[in-house]
Write a structure and sequence with these properties.
The complex is a heterodimer. Chain A folds into two domains: 93 residues, NADH-ubiquinone/plastoquinone oxidoreductase chain 6, subunit NuoJ (Four Helix Bundle (Hemerythrin (Met), subunit A)), CATH 1.20.120; 49 residues, no CATH class. Chain A is mostly helical. In chain B, the strands form three sheets. In chain B, strands 1-2 form a two-stranded antiparallel sheet. Chain B has a two-stranded antiparallel sheet with strand order 3-4. In chain B, strands 5-6 form a two-stranded antiparallel sheet. Chain B contains 13 helices and six strands. The longest helix of chain B has 36 residues. Classes of the chains: A mainly alpha, B mainly alpha. Chains A and B meet through helix 2, helix 3 and helix 6 of A and helix 3, helix 4 and helix 5 of B.
């Protein structure tokens, strides 16, 4: 067992414990903070997989923006007490979805046809050219249309948010 | 070459631990003496003397302050959320320190025959013959600065007091608004360097071609970045989160003893960090005269530039009054954000025609 496996094991323990805390914590703020920790572990995985850009974006977007919004919402609505009065059918649905995801992942890992890295981009290329450069090039050439469609989607969302906020004023 | 761990020689790890210690001690000492310097400098600017009783010229004042705070009574409000209340000062302090992992504070220097680059994550690859560092260094800086907001939001909310909550909300709104302007102001630098690695950014500025004066686009970007970072670390004239006259002391109203000291340290450590980032991106990093002949000069240049920017922040504090809240939001969203967006377009167009720099603009 080399050092990177030991490190992987450590991060994984933190990831699993924090993910469990997300669902078991009584206080929603503590759940949200545990989720931030889980995102950190995911970012560490990306960094270990030679995908530093993904790691940075994971933290900037999820931990830095989305979770701040969620924390804000929890604080402003002041959900202090245990809002854990979910019906048992919700718990059942969640468990079923979790088990299906687990089985599916196991299936892909064991029966999948991809047994080694495929495609033209290798870790050596990433180390040499930079992950951001490679992603940027592909995004603005081969995947330009999906990229633009996503931008329009975001623009629509922003316009919608402005309209909702303005309506409240008048 | 001796023992290797994960494909890297052993001396790399020893050098890394040493660099971490040096950077940590540097930031801590700077934080301690920045408080003293701030009181002294603002004192002189307001024709006062400033602290002069503890030690010669008051030089022991930061130590006395630290001891005093250390021995104060620790108070946790009865209605506070204990976990978040205890976590908040740590969350505020840590991002300020770990940003230093990617900042190069000097050139590659030879120690006991090994080439050691003065950057914590960087190492000298003999095979390639250059310094390898994290190639998303700038994104790492942005990611860490976006985490600083948690500490303040948590502190404001967990204290369960109206002053803290309003201070926390104000502060986080301000940090999120100015983070955008700061993040966008860096983009012209990327466009000129074509890399996100901080080593590459410094290399592009070598030979006194610092971005602050080398190109009109990066000059404007640098100015916007500096103002935006001042707002991000809650310095005057953007210190609304702790506007004493309205909010007592904002998000840290309910904090006492060491936890208050940690917020205080976080503010100054953030100041050191953003000054270091500004130096790296716009002021040439450790670049300076004679640095290629004597690499040992490079950390001195870096420290001198960081201290100069911190002095500038203190000078601004002594000079300018505080912004009003609507003025602050107006400046962030309606002035700085459109300016940075326009700047990106201008940089792209100018770059297309080859007018990247001042010398490119005026013939030569």
């Amino acid at each position: 067992m080399d050092i990177s496996s030991v490190f992987f094991a450590l991060v994984t323990v933190v990831a699993i414990v924090s993910a469990l805390m997300v669902v078991t914590c009584k206080n929603p703020i503590n759940s949200a903070l545990s989720l931030v920790l889980t995102f950190f572990c995911l970012a560490t995985y990306y960094a270990m997989l030679n995908a530093p850009f993904m790691a940075a974006v994971q933290i900037i977007v999820y931990a830095g923006a989305i979770m701040v919004l969620i924390v804000f919402t929890i604080m402003l609505l002041n959900i202090r007490v245990d809002a854990n009065k979910k019906g048992s059918h919700q718990v059942a649905l969640g468990s079923v979805m979790g088990i299906v995801t687990l089985l599916l992942t196991g299936l892909i890992l064991t029966r999948g046809k991809v047994s080694q890295p495929v495609g033209g981009i290798t870790s050596d290329m990433i180390n040499k050219l930079g992950h951001t450069e490679l992603i940027g090039k592909v995004m603005f050439t081969d995947f330009l249309l999906p990229f633009e469609v996503t931008s329009i989607l975001l623009l629509v969302a922003i316009v919608g948010a402005v309209i909702l906020a303005k309506r409240k004023l008048s | 070459m001796g023992i290797e761990i994960l494909g890297l020689p052993l001396y790399y790890y020893i050098a890394m631990v040493a660099k971490v210690l040096i950077a940590f001690v540097f930031v801590l000492l700077t934080v301690a003496y920045a408080t003293y310097a701030e009181r002294k400098i603002i004192g002189w600017m307001q024709v006062r003397i400033g602290p002069n009783r503890t030690g010669p010229m008051g030089l022991l004042q930061p130590i006395a302050d630290g001891l005093k705070l250390f021995f104060k009574e620790e108070i946790i409000p009865a209605e506070a959320n204990k976990f978040a209340f205890l976590l908040a000062p740590l969350v505020a302090l840590i991002p300020a320190f770990i940003t230093f992992a990617v900042i190069p504070f000097g050139d590659t220097i030879k120690i006991f025959g090994y080439d050691v680059p003065l950057q914590i994550v960087g190492y000298y690859d003999a095979g390639v013959g250059k310094v390898v560092d994290m190639n998303v260094g700038v994104l790492y800086v942005l990611a860490m600065s976006s985490l600083g907001v948690y500490g303040i939001v948590l502190a404001g909310w967990a204290s369960n007091s109206k002053y803290s909550l309003i201070g926390g909300l104000r502060s986080s709104a301000q940090m999120i608004s100015y983070e955008l302007a700061a993040g966008l102001a860096i983009i012209p630098v990327f466009m000129l360097v074509e890399s996100l690695s901080l080593q590459e950014i410094i290399k592009a500025q070598a030979g006194m071609k610092w971005f602050i004066w080398n190109s009109p686009m990066t000059f404007v970007a640098g100015m916007i970045f500096y103002v935006a970072t001042l707002a991000e670390v809650n310095r005057t004239p953007f210190d609304l989160p702790e506007a004493e006259t309205e909010l007592v002391s904002g998000f840290c109203t309910e904090y006492s003893s060491m936890k208050y000291a940690m917020f205080f340290m976080a503010e100054y450590a953030n100041m050191v960090t953003v000054s270091a980032v500004m130096v790296t991106l716009f002021l040439g990093g450790w670049d300076g005269p004679f640095v290629s002949a004597i690499p040992w000069l490079s950390p001195l240049y870096f420290i001198a530039k960081v201290y100069f920017l911190m002095f500038l922040a203190m000078w601004i504090r002594a000079t300018l009054p505080r912004y009003r809240y609507d003025q602050l939001m107006h400046l962030g969203w309606k002035v700085m954000l459109p300016t940075t967006l326009a700047l990106i377009v201008v940089t792209a167009v100018a770059g297309h025609f080859g007018f990247y720099t001042f010398s490119g603009l005026f013939g030569n």
